[in-house]
Amino acid sequence: MKVKQFIFNAFQENCYILSDEVTRRCVIIDPGISNAFELKSVTDYIDHEKLTLERVLLTHCHIDHVMGTGFLADAYAVPICGPFDDAERLPSAEQQSRLFGVPIPSKIAPITHNLNEGDRLKIGDSDICVYDIPGHSNHGLCFYLPNEKMLFSGDVLFYGSIGRSDFGPSFGCDGEALVDGIRCKLMSLPPDTTVYPGHGPLTTIGQEIQINPYF
């Protein structure tokens, strides 16, 4: 399994392309694509690697993680998979744009396939297990590949920290629920699991057990 990381938009959001090296199938996780230049870097990579994009996966629906969904829906006509309830309950993209002072670069494509805790997806022969850890938002999906020991944690878990929970109730913030969810669902994963967060550098579960002040 191959991972390509991009850093997009004013929030320095991590977008990932996860590809199976046998089937050449891929998924994009959290497309924070904010302009045509960033979009071209994604399409050029997909073309160069001769990949077929199967779906887009969203960890949550804050604007910095979804602003490229419209670009990708137009370019590839693929399913947009994520927590539908999060999109329904959050302030609209326009409201988030005004709140954070960031323009919306394109239309925001709607979620077409809902994902819930316990769902399993496939990429090649590999399983992608879905965990839902609310607290940073109403829903915070994490995508775990047990055979590869990879965790895409969105804005749930970062290197040495966790997601913010101070945006207020309209964003579904709950710091206690966030910490409890990470402790119960993520800290029991193998210590050598590589964590690919929504912002900042990579880490491992073992490293977070040792250094993260929340645990």
Characterise this structure.
With 215 residues, this protein is of the alpha/beta class. It has one domain (2-211): 4-Layer Sandwich (Metallo-beta-lactamase, Chain A), CATH 3.60.15.10. It contains seven helices and 14 strands. The protein is globular and about 40 Å long. The model has no long low-confidence stretch (mean pLDDT 95).
List the main descriptive attributes of the protein structure presented here:
215 residues, alpha/beta, Metallo-beta-lactamase, Chain A, six-stranded mixed beta sheet, 14 strands, 27% helix
The gist of it:
This protein is α/β, with parallel strands linked by helices and 215 residues long. Helices cover 27% and strands 28% of the residues.
Helical content (DSSP H or I, runs of 4+): 25-40%
The secondary-structure class comes to: alpha/beta
- Report the major sheet: 6 strands, mixed
**Helix count, per DSSP?**
7
Going by CATH, what is the homologous superfamily?
Answer: Ribonuclease Z/Hydroxyacylglutathione hydrolase-like
The strand line-up of the biggest sheet is: 1-2-3-4-5-6
What sort of overall outline do the alpha carbons produce when their principal axes are compared?
globular
Note the beta-strand portion.
25-35%
What is the H-and-E element order?
EEEHEHHEHHEEEEEEEHEEH
Mean pLDDT reading: 95
What is the CATH fold-level name? Metallo-beta-lactamase, Chain A
Contiguous low-pLDDT stretches (5 residues minimum) are none
